[in-house]
């Protein structure tokens, strides 16, 4: 008995030791990777902050600190553009111009919301059957499960922007490309989250419903659906919010919306306008976050 | 088929269950007549739950013949026949297993799902007479006032009562109860046992029991399992309490 106990203790010790040394080795590899990244960048001279980082920072901060929408109230109504020799080229009412820009901004925001909303919904719908196939506890046929998992992994690993670029080539410029890009990329994330919620299901309660002689569809709607619905809605709200952020970038490749305005502002060095657009993005994401948090709390 | 065999609710012959190379159950012969009340006793891992899973068609034996309510369960079985059998077999499982986010009434209505066909069973829009029956079942277990409470907000005893109301709704011919009173206080356990016996008035009742006090409430015949084999099979009146205590001690 004592020998058995000793062997057991030794086994546990050996397991613990091998676990610890594996963790140490992984930590070491991680720090070596960090050192290699830092060292190689430093050797290539790519770690510099430029010639005048502080002055540039200050300048950018000052430009950003004056968002363009302020001009709607305090802009110069007779702003004169002159050539180098002082000739008057044209006079512009800054207030009217910025008011027009704000109107355009509202339209672009609506486009972004439409891309994110429809893209998220399409992604969720596409992901649902794939998640059911991937979830281990539902025991789908192995080749199908493998195929579904591979599809989700590929979708998740390709960035929305890459999907967008390819889709603009296929369906042309406009929100459709954006919607499809968002749907295809977020399908991967939805599939993973949905499959994980299905895997946390209480299998015994499903068996209890099966045990009364219920058919597969009845089991789905009476045991699986009520249990996973809150988690599905929660995942949907989370990814929807994420996609609103993501769809602002899609404008860069021609899907329209806020991203287009961001690209314009950056190319023309209009930091004031960029600040205005970014404020809208932040407000949009923050308000969506607040709403979705309330809905999530109400659902649990 | 003899008359005795035709009135048998359950009959097992040379049945063995194996998982991961380990024999979970090895029964030479067991016959349970319709309307009998049976208690199965034994240590944890003795094969009690395996036997119940076998009888409800959730597990198949490695070999042997097994017949439950006239359905042969040993070989492969069409899904429709399995569902038809499950409609007739009611279960109260260890740890209850109600659908947590549904109300007590909706959980009771699940008991009648075998009878509800088509879209009504998918959308949980049950016919009025089913809802009426479910309400009656809840009233029978004195829980009608909690009908619209979500089951994850009910107490342990109340949940077990909902499981029994689901059983009443199902109207099964065979009831399998796996430790129906586990985690209940003594008075709640006795109440649940009485309700279970009432539900089983028209049915055969096979229950796994640990508490000897509950045996007279639930059984007239006691089967002891040890390491997957039948150690004893006696009428309750012949079972000595000391003998039972020794059985658990071994």
From TrEMBL, chain A:
Residue span(s) of domain ABC transmembrane type-1: 109-292
Protein keywords: Cell membrane, Membrane, Transmembrane, Transmembrane helix, Transport
Gene3D superfamilies assigned to the protein according to its UniProt record, in alphabetical order: MetI-like
Principal place of residence: membrane
UniProt similarity note: Belongs to the binding-protein-dependent transport system permease family.
PANTHER family to which the protein is assigned, alphabetical: ABC TRANSPORT SYSTEM PERMEASE PROTEIN P69 (PTHR30043:SF1), PHOSPHONATES TRANSPORT SYSTEM PERMEASE PROTEIN (PTHR30043)
Official protein name in the record: Phosphate-import permease protein PhnE
Lineage, top ranks: Bacteria, Pseudomonadati, Pseudomonadota, Betaproteobacteria, Candidatus Accumulibacter
TrEMBL record, chain B:
Gene: phnC
Coiled-coil boundaries: none
GO molecular function: ATP binding; ATP hydrolysis activity
InterPro entries: AAA+_ATPase (IPR003593), ABC_transporter-like_ATP-bd (IPR003439), ABC_transporter-like_CS (IPR017871), MetN_ABC_transporter-like (IPR050086), P-loop_NTPase (IPR027417)
Keyword set, alphabetical order: ATP-binding, Cell membrane, Hydrolase, Membrane, Nucleotide-binding, Translocase, Transport
Keyword tRNA processing: no
Protein name: Phosphate-import ATP-binding protein PhnC
Top EC class, one word: hydrolase
Cited SUPFAM superfamilies: P-loop containing nucleoside triphosphate hydrolases
EC number: 3.6.3.27
PROSITE patterns: ABC_TRANSPORTER_1, ABC_TRANSPORTER_2
Domain ABC transporter: 10-244
Pfam families in UniProt: ABC_tran (PF00005)
